[in-house]
Predict the structure.
Amino acid sequence: MRRSTKWMITVHYYMALITGILSFCIDQTTGEVYATAIVTVYSALTSIAVFGVVPLLYYVDYNSPYLHVQISGLLFVLRVIGLMVTVICNWTKREEFMATLRDLMKARDYFLKIWPLSEKLEQKYENTLRRKYFWSFATTASMLLLSREFFKLQFKLDSNYTLPAIMFMGSVFNVIIMNYFLCMLHLNTLLMGLNEEVKKILKMSCDLWQLQRSKQIRPGAFITQCCKLSDDLDELAATQYRLHLLGNRVYKLYDLQSACFTLMIHLNNVSVYYMMYVSFYSGQVIDEQYSPWSLMSMPLFLTFYYIDLSLFTLNMLAYPEPCTYTLDGRLEES
C-alpha cells in the first residue's frame, strides 16, 4: 500500500477520534482494538457537546414557501438524527462495536494467512479506497463552502459562531458514513478474494476431469485431489458464511444511520430536480436567494456528490448472498 494511502487512512482515523465518532482506539499497524481512559473521557465530553446542536432544530424554517429550503431543513434534521444515534450507540453498543471490529480483523488475518490476495485485487482495493477518500473530501469541502448561504437562508441566522458550528456538525455525518464504507469495503475485498479461490478450484476440477478422461492420472491420485479440492471448497464456504454474518453485524450497527443516509439521497435528488425546474421557469427566485458564485459552484458540487455516491453504492451492491455453510460430497464422489 502506498504511503499516501496510509496517510489518508490515518487522517480519517484521527478525524473520527477528534469528532468523537470513535470512543475507542485502533492500532494502525496491528489492527488491535482497545480502549483508553483519555479517549473515553474525551469522547464522553465530545458526546455531551454534540447534544448542543439539538436546540438548533427549533430554528429551522419548516414553513418556508420554497420546497428546496424545506428539503434543506429536513436534510439538516436527518444529519442531526444520524449524529445523535451514533453518539448514543457509541456508549450503548460500544462493546459490540469493539467486538465486531476485533472479529473483522481476526477474519481478515485468518483469510490472508491461508489465501493471500492477488496483486490485482490489492490494487483494486487501494484504488477504491483512494477514490472514495478523494471524492468524499471533495464533496465535504465543496459542501462546506456552499452551505453557508444555504444555512443562512434556512436558519435566518448570521452569527459568527452558530453557522460555522452548524456547518461543521453537518459534515461530521460524512465521517460516520465513511466508517461504514470502510468496514464493508474490507468485507467485500475478502469476499472477492474468496471468489478468486473458488474460480481456481473450478479450474482445477476441470483440469482433473480432462486428465481423468484422457487417463493421464491414476485413480488414487484423482480421488486424493478431488478430496483436497472438496475440503478447500468446504473451508471457503464456511469462511464466506462467517464473513456474511460479520456483514450482518456491521449492517445492524449502522442501520439507523443508513436509513438516514438513504432518505438524504432521495431528498437531495428531489431538491436538485426542483431547483432545476425553478431555475428554468422562474430563475429570478433562485438568483435572489443565492449568489452567482454559489450558483456557478453548485454543478461542481453535484458532480462530486454523485461520483462519491456511486462509489458508495457500488460497494454496497457488491455484497453477495451467503452460500451453503456445508457442502455435500459430490466433488469427492466425482
About this structure: The chain has eleven helices and two strands. The chain has one domain: 62-318. Residues 144 and 167 are 6 Å apart (CA to CA).
